[in-house]
Design a protein that fits this description.
Blueprint: H1 6-10, E1 15-16, H2 27-39, H3 50-70, E2 77-80, H4 83-93, E3 103-107, H5 116-125, E4 128-132, H6 145-148, E5 153-159, H7 171-180, E6 184-188, H8 200-203, E7 207-211, E8 222-226, H9 228-231, E9 244-248, E10 251-254, H10 268-282, H11 286-305, E11 310-312, E12 324-329, H12 334-343, E13 346-347, E14 349-351, H13 356-361, E15 367-371, H14 378-394
Parallel strand pairs: 1-13, 3-4, 3-5, 5-6, 6-7
Antiparallel strand pairs: 2-8, 7-8, 9-10, 11-12, 12-15, 14-15
Helix pairs in contact: 2-10, 3-10, 11-14, 12-14
The structure holds 4'-deoxy-4'-aminopyridoxal-5'-phosphate (PMP).
The site of 4'-deoxy-4'-aminopyridoxal-5'-phosphate has 14 residues, from helix 4.
Length: 396
């Protein structure tokens, strides 16, 4: 696996355990970007010459790859700069139809990218924001849904997988409850896509957001998926070239979706690179990879149990979660821990992980996070456990 990732192949001593922040880029994605930039680089939807045509085809074919990865239609794929931009797009375009008295439900487990846009919408529109609490094991307290979902709830905005605890949301239960009150569901898939292709038709949600850099593709590109019947009714978020039908001194008309939501020159080469990463992911044996990820996560959790003063945030079970494990060590600051680990070739992130409401619920201000991806193996976990034992001694 490691040999498919140029950075990891070049840095044999690196134990990269921060894939929840950014996964390493796969060789296929890099090759595709280089091929595009040196063979088909031109702007899209504007030129009539052969090179512009090649760029158009490459970009639309990338849309097709993203659609296959999510089991949806290509015209439902909007390229954005990332998950954050995708979620802000929903908050603006879907939010434009909301008014004071309407309600949006979010959870306390959200990344700031799926929390702050709704706080901003509350400021803009005077909507009410309801917050689904998390249980001590990091799972969303879905038992509270019937009480929190009201007739006025228009949208439920939840993460598919926590970037702190690795907890996976029972999306079917959420969709079922949301449908009862006629609410739409937007799912933040940023942490889920790295662990395999998604079947959005089966999940039953209405919008889905993810970033390319978290699923072995380039940075600067992401995807918003929205149901065709919704996208075609929503107003644009950003104005500019490409998203209009006609413009005159009095106003403008909207282009069809998805172009309506892609103002300006889109991230063309990045989308092409992302498509290559997604194609590569779709060629893998995911049941086997997930088994491997779970076994590795179990080893990590077992090892963490042995470290004095260490507390894992959320569940200690390796099954039914993503291999993202956050912890605190009594008396030690995560930044100090990460610094000691770094000296041992271990790349981990310490801090609030852009999830301050969740950390508050879990009773900490900051924590250290180890996130495993398909290129990690037993040697990474063993090195982390050694490094932590060393850090616990050195810092006390
Ligand atoms: N949601 C979740 C759950 C995340 O983990 C992240 C990235 N840390 C984001 C959204 C935002 O992704 P990006 O910064 O790529 O827009």
């Amino acid at each position: 696996m490691r040999s498919g990732f140029p950075l990891l192949a070049a840095q044999a001593g690196l134990h990269y355990l921060d894939s929840a922040a950014t996964a390493q880029i796969h060789r296929d994605a890099l090759d595709a970007v280089l091929r595009h930039e040196t063979g088909s680089r031109a702007n899209v939807m504007r030129g009539t010459y052969a090179l512009a045509d090649a760029a158009d085809r490459a970009y639309e074919s990338a849309r097709g790859a993203a659609a296959r990865f999510l089991n949806v239609a290509a015209e439902e794929i909007v390229f954005t700069s990332g998950a954050t931009a995708a979620l802000n797009l929903v908050a603006h375009s879907f939010g434009a139809g909301l008014q004071a008295g309407d309600r949006v439900l979010v959870s306390q487990a959200e990344h700031h990218s799926n929390f702050v846009p709704w706080l901003m919408l509350r400021e803009r529109k005077g909507i009410a924001l309801d917050v689904l609490p998390v249980r001590p094991d990091g799972q969303l307290d879905l038992g509270r849904l019937p009480q929190l979902l009201r007739e006025e709830t228009r949208l439920v905005a939840l993460t598919q997988c926590s970037n702190v605890t690795g907890a996976i949301t029972d999306v079917a239960a959420v969709v079922d409850a949301a449908r009862r009150v006629g609410a739409r569901v937007v799912l933040d898939g940023a942490q889920a896509v790295q662990h395999g292709p998604q079947d959005l038709r089966a999940l039953g949600v209405d919008f889905y957001a993810f970033s390319g850099h978290k699923c072995f593709g380039p940075g600067g590109v992401g995807v918003l998926w929205g149901r065709a019947e919704l996208l075609c009714t929503l107003p644009p978020f950003c104005g500019g070239g490409g998203m209009v039908g006609e413009v005159n001194l009095d106003g403008f008309s909207w282009a069809e979706a998805p172009r309506r939501f892609e103002a300006g020159t889109p991230p063309i080469a990045q989308a092409v690179g992302l498509a290559a990463a997604l194609d590569w992911m779709m060629s893998l044996d995911w049941p086997r990879l997930r088994e491997r990820e779970t076994a590795l996560c179990a080893r990590l959790l077992d090892g963490l149990r042995e470290i004095p003063g260490l507390r894992v945030l959320g569940s200690m079970a390796a099954e039914g979660r993503a291999p993202i494990v956050s912890f605190e060590i009594a008396g030690l600051h995560p930044h100090d821990i990460c610094q000691v680990l770094d000296a041992h070739g271990l790349a981990l992130r310490g801090g609030h992980h852009c999830a301050q409401p969740l950390l508050a619920a879990l009773g900490v201000e900051a924590c250290t996070r180890a996130s495993l991806a398909l290129y990690n193996d037993e040697s990474d976990v063993a090195a982390l456990l050694d490094g932590l034992r060393h850090a616990a001694k050195a810092l006390r």
